[in-house]
Specification:
homodimer, mainly alpha, Arc Repressor Mutant, subunit A, three-stranded antiparallel beta sheet, DNA-binding
DNA sequence: ATGAAATAATAAGCAGGCTTATAATGAGCG
DNA sequence: CGCTCATTATAAGCCTGCTTATTATTTCAT
């Protein structure tokens, strides 16, 4: 990246734009499908992580999601209000709660999994498995470069 | 993408997650740098497009940015309030305005360009030019697949 | 010419991310 | 013990995106 000319700078600028654009398009596509069911991409990501690691405390879950704990708190407020998650006090540490999905989550996850697959099939039309792996690898390196400066989580 | 097993589904799910995460990390990194100057990623993208194509009307500019016109409107309100852009009425069509950057924009762009370069240098540390091209190509194909369903703009 | 449909900008209100600041609890050290 | 400091969750308020609905204007068919 050192000593690249003007054209290199612009191509990297456009790559940044493409990255934001791709993420937004993907989210929007999924949200359109999920909206009729009262769900969204953000909620799905929370539930997806939560069904894989039950009983996480909020800071740890926020770490998995790479978002600020306070951003998660409001999401959980709503999910709890809809009966999708449960906050159980931790007897070992009265400051924190452990988060669990409720029974209602399983059918919702099945539905959302299908919707997510539709979105991905559409987005990745014409991609080989190798290309998907390549994309993920490149994104992973980019994330790793950036995450160094972020606060580490549990 | 058809007929992929469970592991393929999960890897594609994680790719989606990585995509959102990468975009968010990149934006956050830039915003941290720009905040002290009262600017942000979203504002920079508006100004960047605007200096390249002056006198666009709002719908066309929103199209370039791939965002809804109303989302742009409020951004422009603030940018106009800060004296960075100007809305000039179009004598040919009294419904619309043409948007121009003011003289204040040029120095701001120089500064933001440097900040953007810092962010990119950090994010793309260890990437070859070929890899950046590869990433952009993959993202471009993904976008093209998704944008078909979106409304086309000027 | 005139009335219907399309288009440009906006308003209102929601979603989901952030920073900064606070309250409650836990942990460590004198 | 008691004081300080770190950690957990939350509150308040901003930014930027969205959908849906409204207003003003243009365009076009009749």
């Amino acid at each position: 990246m050192s000593g690249m000319g003007e054209s290199g700078k612009d191509s990297a600028t456009e790559m940044s734009f493409a990255l934001h654009s791709a993420a937004r398009l993907l989210r929007r596509n999924f949200d359109r499908r999920a909206r009729d069911h009262g769900l969204s991409d953000a909620r799905w990501q929370v539930l997806w992580h939560l069904t894989r690691e039950q009983g996480l405390k909020q800071t740890a879950l926020a770490g998995r999601l790479e978002m600020a704990p306070i951003s998660l708190a409001r999401l959980l407020d709503k999910l709890q209000g809809e009966g999708l998650v449960e906050r159980r006090p931790d007897p070992q540490d009265r400051r924190c709660f452990k988060i669990y999905p409720t029974d209602q989550v399983q059918p919702a996850m099945a539905l959302l999994g299908d919707l997510a697959e539709e979105t991905r099939n559409h987005a990745l039309d014409g991609f080989t498995a190798a290309e998907i792996g390549q994309l993920q690898a490149l994104l992973g390196r980019l994330r790793k470069n950036l995450i160094g400066e972020e606060i580490e989580c549990d």
